[in-house]
Amino acid sequence: MRNRGWRGEPPSDDDEARERIIAAAMRCIDRHGAAKTGLADVAAELGVTRQTVYRLFPSAEDLFQAMAVSAADTFIDRMAARVSGFTEPAEMLVECLAFTLERLHQERHLSALFVREQAHITRQFTSATPSELTRTLMARLPVDWHALGIDRRRQDQIVEIYLRTLQSFVIDPGPPRSPDELRAFLRLWLAPAIRVPGPDRLGGEAGDPGDASSGPHERRASGRPGQ
């Protein structure tokens, strides 16, 4: 690690340098907003050259992804705590998605990955970083997915439909909805896609999709008779 710059206090190694660059990016966003923050601003905040930042983060998107991952860790813990009293996995994910939609634009460091460049928003939502963050969320929820018959392939499908729903709301929020109305909408259209399937659905066998949420297996797994 070079000793030049860093306002006279150079980091001890690249890991510390990355942490300080991410922290500087967060401060810049707090002052200027995500849309007006670039690598040059971060470099100036640290008292280093742009080349120093480029060496560790080859592009602004690399830096913003790293910052989003750092900010997401705490946010995921907050969501997991919020649904700790829920019993049905589908209801947990509905609440997590609704909470994310309500909070995303207030979480400046987390939302920067998605709102900084609208032209790239589709690619960003389908990139590895949002998918890994959603898998982390699922792992921290009080759910034993495998015990419910939800294998890794099925979990990946849940991650995809969750992110595609989030993407559609961020791009076009649609008509105004109260918190209760938003949850009711997600419960009606998203929850059936992520509820615990019947045994015949796990193998991908043909059948009437409308029966998947009404069989005895589903009623036992969800703990909500009559659903």
Automatic annotation (TrEMBL):
This protein's source sits in the domain of life called Bacteria
Which keywords has UniProt assigned to this entry?
DNA-binding, Transcription, Transcription regulation
One family from Pfam that matches here is TetR_N
- DNA-binding region per Swiss-Prot/TrEMBL record: 38-57
Q: Which residues form a coiled coil?
A: none
The protein's GO terms of the molecular function aspect are: DNA-binding transcription factor activity; transcription cis-regulatory region binding
Q: Residues annotated as region Disordered? A: 196-227
Q: What is the designated name of this protein?
A: TetR/AcrR family transcriptional regulator
Q: Provide the taxonomic classification.
A: Bacteria, Bacillati, Actinomycetota, Actinomycetes, Streptosporangiales
